[in-house]
């Protein structure tokens, strides 16, 4: 998997689990590129994609922040986005001879693990 995709997935995971919260400032392109030892253009591509997906918001002169409203997409658009990701997962499952039942179990396990981490993160906040 390309490094930019791995970084995108990691940022989304951190937002989903509450490690990164709405309004949190994320590192600058230069700072994150240095920390991860990747080209600044890679991080710029990551941030642009995450902004396009309404995960991050760039505020000129202030920095890049976790978007305040992740629900700006309609329900149909959100379902379409998830369907695209699940289509890719289904292709991998078929290619690797993982059954539909096993794939469903894996999805459920991951979903519940992320929701649990999010709830724990919110509990610590209070």
What does this structure look like?
- The chain has 126 residues and is mainly alpha-helical.
- It folds into 2 domains: 64 residues, Arc Repressor Mutant, subunit A (Orthogonal Bundle), CATH 1.10.10; 51 residues, no CATH class.
- Helix content is 66%, strand content 8%.
- The chain contains 5 helices and 3 strands.
- Strands 1-3-2 form a 3-stranded antiparallel β-sheet.
- β2 and β3 form a beta hairpin.
Q: Give the low-pLDDT segments.
A: none
CATH homologous superfamily designation of the largest domain: Winged helix-like DNA-binding domain superfamily/Winged helix DNA-binding domain
The secondary structure category is: mainly alpha
Q: Name the beta content range.
A: 5-15%
CATH architecture level-2 label of the largest domain: Orthogonal Bundle
Number of strands: 3
User: What's the CATH topology name of the largest domain?
Assistant: Arc Repressor Mutant, subunit A
Q: Main sheet?
A: 3 strands, antiparallel
Radius of gyration: 16 Å
Report mean pLDDT, rounded to a whole number.
90
* Cα shape: globular
- The largest sheet has its strands arranged as 1-3-2
Task: Tally the structural domains.
Answer: 2
The arrangement of helices and strands along the chain is HEHHEEHH
């Amino acid at each position: 998997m390309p490094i930019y995709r791995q970084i995108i997935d990691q940022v989304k995971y951190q937002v989903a689990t509450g490690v990164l919260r709405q309004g949190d400032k994320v590192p600058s392109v230069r700072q994150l590129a240095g920390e991860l030892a990747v080209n600044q253009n890679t991080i710029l591509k990551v941030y642009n994609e995450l902004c396009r997906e309404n995960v991050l918001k760039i505020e000129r002169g202030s920095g890049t922040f976790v978007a305040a409203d992740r629900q700006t997409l309609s329900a149909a658009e959100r379902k379409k986005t998830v369907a695209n990701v699940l289509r890719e997962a289904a292709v991998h499952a078929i290619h690797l001879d993982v059954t539909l039942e096993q794939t469903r179990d894996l999805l459920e396990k991951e979903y519940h693990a992320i929701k649990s981490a999010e709830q724990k993160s919110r509990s610590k906040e209070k």
